[in-house]
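Assess this one:
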Amino acid sequence: YPRQHAPETHLSEFNLTEIEAMLGSYTKVLFIRDPFQRLISTFMQGMGSSPSFSSFVQDVLDTGQHNASLSWKPLVSLCRPCLVQYDYVVMFGFFRQELGHLLQRAGLPVDSLLPEFTDTQVQWTYSWLSEQMFSELSLQQKKQLSRFYRWDLSAFPFSSSLLAD
């Protein structure tokens, strides 16, 4: 896009005409991850100060969506998929397959650029971990989390998410 801007410039700082021109000139890729897995990852990385996963989830719920950390804020509020037409949506757990396709579409050599992914192991581990962490939550917390992430669950194919039930 021809207008000079600093890397930290937010899209909202441009007018609608500039935004449309910029978005039309880029290939837009969105990386998504099951919201419950994002919560687990944030908790496991020690980004929450809570002693247990259940108390961490309660802190997240008490904070609300408007004051939520970027680590667990609903994706729909971060990436605006209803306003921005993404060219590609890449789901966590399918990186090797999807990034290979993306690189191929971009005309780049696939094999030499892709790192080694262990998607199957990652999916199995997160599936097991999700079930363990989910069992720690009260029924009320599960319902509140489903409501907290309802737009993500509607917008993206997280059909195997424990929150989708």
Q: What stands out?
A: DSSP finds nine helices and two strands in the chain. Strands lie at 29-32, 88-91. The chain has one domain: 11-155. The mean pLDDT is 83.
